[in-house]
Amino acid sequence: MLPRSLSHLSDRALAEQLETLVSRERVHAAELLAHLAEFDARKLYRPAGYASLYVYCVKALGMSEDVACRRTIAARASRRHTAILAALADGRLHLTAVVTLAPYLKRLPRQAAVALLEAAERRSKHDLALMLATRFPSPDVPTSVRPVMPASDPAATERAPLTTRPDTPSSGSALQVTPMSCTSAPARISDVSMTSAPPLGPLSLAVPPQPPPQQIRAQVVPLSAERFELRGTISRDFHEKIQKLRELFSHVVPNGDAFALLERCADEVLVRAERRGTTRASRVEADGTPLAVDPEHRQAPEALRRFIWHRDGGQCTFVSESGRRCESRERVELDHVVPVAKGGRTEAGNLRLLCRSHNQFEAERQLGPEFIRQRRSQAAQQR
Ligand SMILES: [Zn+2]
C-alpha cells in the first residue's frame, strides 16, 4: 500500500503504528537475508547470468551497491550462524552489527562466535566498535602528515606533481601517499563515548584473533565525462618504483606527476603485449585465426588467447536461458566449450571467455560436481 497522509492519526496511534512497522520491517529483513543466503548457497545467480550474489542483488534486484554488499555479507554470516536471523528479527542485532561482526565470526571457534554474537546484542555501532577494539586490540596507528589540496585552487590538482614528502612546499597532489594503517583504520576509539558504553560481556579468548585484514581496492570515482579520481593505497615497493620511474622519465615527465608516469608505463606495456600477440602466432588459419601447435593440448598459445579475448570483448560470454549475457570482466578465464576431458580441442571455435563463477558453473554442469570436486582435491594435493 502506498503511503498516505497520516495527519488524522493521534500521537499515540502514530507511535504505535511506527513501532509495528519497525517490528515488521525487522522480520522482513531477516526473511530477506534467509532467502538471499539460500539463493547464494544454491548459486542460483549463475544460471541467471550473474557472476555473484552481489552482482545479482545490484543488477537483478535493484539494490544499491552498498546495500547489496552489506546484505551479501550478512546473508553469508547468517548461513553459518542461524541465530543471527532470530536476533535481527526481534531487534537484538541490527544489520550494521552483523556486517561488522562477520569477519570476526569467520575466524572464531563456534562457541566463541556465539558468545560474541550475544555480547554484541543491543549495542549501537559505536558501542560495538569499542567492544571489538577492547576484545581484539589493534596496534597503535602511527602518526602521519598528509599533504592536502587547498579547496580554493582546483586547477592546482592539474599542475601539481605527486608528492610524498610532507615538507614539500607545494603540498598539492592528486594522489596522496599515506601509510595504509592511517587510511584504512576503523572508527577511532576516541570517537566513541566511553561513558555511554554498556559493560562489556564476559567473553574472553586465550589467543585473541588478529583483526581481519583490510582489503581495500583502489577506488575510481568519475568526476566528469572525461575525468576520474583514483584513490587507493600502495605498498612501499610500489612507492619506490614510482620514485625510480620519476628519475628515469624525468626528461619526458619533468614535473614527476605519478599519474603521467603510470599512464606512460601503461602505454608501453600495452604496445608490448599487442606486439607479442601478433609475433608469436606461428600458425594461422586462412582467415588469420591463430592455431594451437597441438589442438589436443589444453594450453592455448598466447596469440590464440589474445584472439579469443578480442573476439569476446574481454567479457564473460555466459548467456542465461532468458538471454542475459553475464557482464563480468573480472577474473575472466579461457574455457573449452566442449571440455578437453570429453575430447574438446584447443581451437578458436571451441574456446570462449567465462568469468570464474560461470567457468565453475559450466564445468559442474558438463562434468558433474563430483568430477570437479575430485579434480580440485587432486590439484590441492599436488600443491
Ligand atoms: Zn560470468
Keywords:
4 strands, two-stranded antiparallel ribbon, globular, DNA Binding (I), subunit A, 383 residues, mainly alpha
Helical content stands at 40-55%
Radius of gyration: 27 Å
Taking the sheet with the most strands, its summary is: 2 strands, antiparallel
Helix and strand content put the structural class at mainly alpha
DSSP E strands, number: 4
Distance between the termini: 58 Å
Count of discrete alpha- or pi-helical segments spanning 4 or more residues: 14
Bound molecules: zinc ion
Mean pLDDT reading: 78
Strand order of the largest sheet: 1-2
Shape estimate = globular
Unreliable spans: 150-208, 277-282
The run of helices and strands is HHHHHHHHHEEHHHEEHH
User: What percent of residues are in strands?
Assistant: under 5%
Q: What does it look like?
A:
The chain contains 14 helices and 4 strands. It is mainly alpha-helical and 383 residues long. Among the domains are: 13-135, no CATH class; 234-279, no CATH class; 302-382, DNA Binding (I), subunit A. The strands form 2 sheets. A two-stranded antiparallel ribbon has the order 1-2. Helix 2 crosses helix 3 and helix 11 (258-279) packs across helix 12 (302-311). Residues 51, 316, 318, 326, 328, 354-355, 357-358 line the site of zinc ion.
